[in-house]
Amino acid sequence: MTAMRKALLGAALAAALVTGTAAVPAAAAAPEADVAHHGHVSLWGRRLAVWLVSENHGPSNVSHATVRLAFSAPMARGQELPPACLWSSDRVISCRTGALRAAGAADELALDLRTAGRQDELTVDIRTVWRDGVADTNPRNDRHHVLVLATGDPYVF
Q1: pLDDT over 90 at 34, yes or no
Q2: CA dist list (Å): 133 to 61, 91, 140
Q3: What pLDDT shows up at residue 28?
Q4: Residue 97: how many CA atoms within 13 Å on its side-chain side?
Q5: Average pLDDT over residues 32-57
Q6: Element (H, E) at 36
Q7: 45-59, pLDDT tens digit by residue?
Q8: Measuring CA to CA, which residue among 125, 118, 128 is closest to residue 65?
Q9: How far apart are CA 115 and CA 71, in angstroms?
Q10: CA distances from 117 to 77, 109, 121, 151 (A)
Q11: Alpha-carbon gap, residue 100 to 57, rounded angstroms
Q12: Contact by Cβ (8 Å): 111, 81
């Protein structure tokens, strides 16, 4: 950058600050929410059940969010999912949460899946992958890594 351009840029920034017209960075203007996912996972035989509720602890509403569930073992092919969900691969499902009001929850998501083979255990990674432009400064409660043993017991996250 030439000295002349630097001087012009400096003058423009100084004028903007004096007149109060300085641009606010987009990140600073983004609304903030706290998306969280809670539920449980059970594994028995070749069945895997996932029950999940997505919540927003606020302070801003989230018009749409997407939660991704990634499994360490492949699921059997040809299984239908609820209308809000789709298969990304035989190990990954993505689901829309719908609108999340501040201090509100979405409808529960219940999945009854079959694994491609009998598993003694598997892991499930749950995480928010999209929040419609809303910032989330507390991502710890929307990211979970759950080890599920084939006992039929609910493993809570």
Answers
A1: yes
A2: 11, 27, 18
A3: 58
A4: 32
A5: 97
A6: strand 35-44
A7: 999 999 999 999 999
A8: 128
A9: 10
A10: 11, 24, 11, 16
A11: 9
A12: yes
Please list, residue by residue across 42-80, b when 16 or more beta carbons sit within 10 angstroms of its beta carbon and e when fewer do. Answer: bbeeeebbbbbebbbbeebbbeebbbebbbebebeeeee
**Measured between alpha carbons, how far is 150 from 157 in angstroms, rounded to an integer?**
17
Q: Please, where are the H alpha helices in the chain?
A: 3-19, 26-29
Type of residue found at 37: H
Query: What is the rounded CA–CA span in Å between residue 52 and residue 108?
Result: 6
What is the residue whose two structure tokens read 């569930």?
A: 69
Bridge partners, residue 70, by sequence: 92, 125
Query: What average pLDDT does the segment 74-95 reach?
Result: 97
Q: For the chain, what is the largest distance between any 2 Cα atoms, rounded to a whole number of angstroms?
A: 73
pLDDT tens track for 95-125: 999 999 999 999 999 999 999 999 999 999 9
Q: Counting every residue, how long is the chain?
A: 157
CB 34 within 8 A of CB 141: yes
